[in-house]
């Protein structure tokens, strides 16, 4: 019956589990949303310990998902990755981010943006060509863009992956290693990734400065980063005591609800430009 095509799919749906059905529904709706360019951006500011906004992280938003309800990236990014939609999705996120960077540059505001890239994207040379072309055409300085990659990169090691990271790096784009400490990183490997920054995962920031283990882990990360001349961003900062501990131990940038919650890109842009006039 499968060969009969699309009209037959519904026939099978009741037999699928609840989870599988949600996935099929999400993938179809996400395909439409990407086709119609309906995804939007939120931006969360990153602060130096003196309280100044230095940069921002771009977070994709799907506000109008199935039944008109928002879907979190934690749910739809894995669907995008397994369906190939991650490529057009990332190009749309990048293209909207470049528009914002153009506006900032036009007003003389220096504020780099970080964009999240799934590791599977680095296996596709043609996709990386497209990224370089898009940035080139935009006229935005590649140095104002940071790409966040995660430690899962270490698991699916692939020859072309390092080459593509190197290509983007030689083009001027900087790299940040997201969720640092949660994977299986081999410290020697850090050098090969052309990194300029590490992000300490929220789980190590939680319960600072009370938790002995997290205190030790965070101090070690900061010390490794200093020796490798990498900047450090702490994510998930929710309490002043965490910010104080991180600042006292030399963390470069703080990000979290304590300082700023992700906000729609247009509102973020307007506010950042007003505050720097
Ligand atoms: P992430 O890259 O680790 O991003 C940080 C997440 O933590 C964001 O969730 C952010 O809203 C949230 N967050 C920030 N500060 C705090 C805080 O103080 N407390 C708590 N509890 N949470 C905080 P969000 O926006 O739901 O994104 C979830 C994940 O989805 C991201 O985790 C990232 O892995 C992925 N993601 C988001 N946008 C993109 C994208 O454009 N492309 C790709 N490939 N992945 C994305
Ligand atoms: Ca991130
Ligand atoms: Ca993160
Ligand atoms: Ca995280």
TrEMBL record:
Q: Where is the EAL domain?
A: 23-276
Q: Mark the transmembrane ranges.
A: none
Please give the name of this protein. Answer: EAL domain-containing protein
